[in-house]
């Protein structure tokens, strides 16, 4: 009886995490419950690897808490961050359709909890429910557009615009353009790699934003004082 109640609570908590994920946001509660029932919870300590490049794929993942750094390493040992995924974000969805291993490494930036959506169970469910497959395909397309936008930022915008965009994407869902606080879960080095620059350049850009009174820094937090000003930095054309 107790174990059954605990499992119900676990499934409900997992379903809430899935509901916050863009990939599953349009699914009815009953279908979320089915997916939550076979999701596997994995806990990672800071610096622990979730998977390595070319290891066999088990499925794809949703971050429940913490942050996961997905990156590739050059033959010379240089690490290139592809993206840092945070709570409510999914990654490695290509594992559903790929017979080969993961194309990159994934490591916890801080103590993290992720949900594994096993490949076999997800494919079995989609085979029985083609309507669900169509819903997930639509959500995945929207998710892909977000990732393409991140790639565009890296290739078409300068460091100031990329940092402004990074801060704007972490704005709480509140009306108006008032100040808000962004808590830095990762190191400045990880953030610099995420926006495609060096730590020293990131520090100089933060200092410039402070001098322009766009932000204020306090320990591991950045207080955005002027969201509208940051948006102007983000939207300006690179010359």
Low-confidence stretches: none
Structural class: alpha+beta
User: Rg, please?
Assistant: 19 Å
Overall morphology? globular
Distance between the termini: 66 Å
Helix amount = 40-55%
Q: How is the main sheet built?
A: 4 strands, antiparallel
Instruction: Please name the CATH architecture of the largest domain.
Output: Sandwich
- The average pLDDT score comes to 85
The figure for the number of domains is 2
DSSP, total strands: 11
Describe what this molecule looks like in 3D.
The structure is a single chain. The chain starts with a helix and ends with a helix. It has 2 domains: 154 residues, Jelly Rolls (Sandwich); 79 residues, Winged helix-like DNA-binding domain superfamily/Winged helix DNA-binding domain (Arc Repressor Mutant, subunit A). The protein is of the alpha+beta class and 239 residues long. It has a 4-stranded antiparallel sheet with strand order 1-8-3-6. A 4-stranded antiparallel sheet has the order 2-7-4-5. It is 44% helix and 23% strand.
Question: What is the secondary structure topology, with strand pairs?
Answer:
Elements: H1 2-19, H2 29-38, E1 40-44, E2 49-51, E3 59-65, E4 67-73, E5 79-86, E6 90-91, E7 105-108, E8 112-118, H3 119-128, H4 130-156, H5 159-168, E9 180-183, H6 188-194, H7 199-211, E10 215-218, E11 221-224, H8 227-235
Antiparallel strand pairs: 1-8, 2-7, 3-6, 3-8, 4-5, 4-7, 9-11, 10-11
Helix pairs in contact: 1-2, 3-4, 5-8, 6-7
């Amino acid at each position: 009886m107790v174990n059954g109640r605990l499992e119900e609570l676990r499934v409900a908590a997992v379903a809430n995490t899935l509901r916050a994920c863009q990939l599953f946001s349009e699914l009815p509660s009953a279908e979320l419950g089915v997916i939550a029932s076979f999701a596997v919870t994995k806990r990672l300590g800071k610096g622990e690897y979730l998977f390595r490049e070319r290891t066999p794929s088990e499925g794809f993942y949703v971050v429940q808490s913490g942050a996961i750094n997905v990156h590739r390493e050059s033959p010379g040992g240089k690490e290139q961050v592809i993206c840092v995924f945070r709570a409510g974000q999914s990654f490695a969805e290509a594992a559903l359709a790929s017979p080969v291993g993961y194309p990159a490494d994934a490591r916890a930036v801080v103590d993290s909890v992720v949900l594994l959506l096993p490949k076999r169970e997800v494919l079995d469910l989609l085979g029985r429910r083609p309507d669900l497959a169509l819903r997930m395909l639509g959500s995945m397309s929207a998710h892909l557009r977000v990732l393409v936008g991140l790639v565009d930022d890296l290739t078409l915008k300068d460091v100031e615009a990329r940092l402004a965009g990074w801060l704007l994407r972490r704005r709480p869902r509140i009306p108006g353009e008032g100040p808000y606080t962004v808590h830095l879960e990762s190191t400045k080095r990880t953030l610099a790699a995420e926006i495609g620059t060096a730590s020293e350049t990131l520090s100089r850009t933060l200092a410039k934003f402070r001098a322009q009174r766009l932000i204020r820094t306090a320990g591991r937090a950045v207080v955005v004082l002027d969201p509208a000003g940051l948006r102007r930095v983000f939207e300006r054309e690179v010359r």
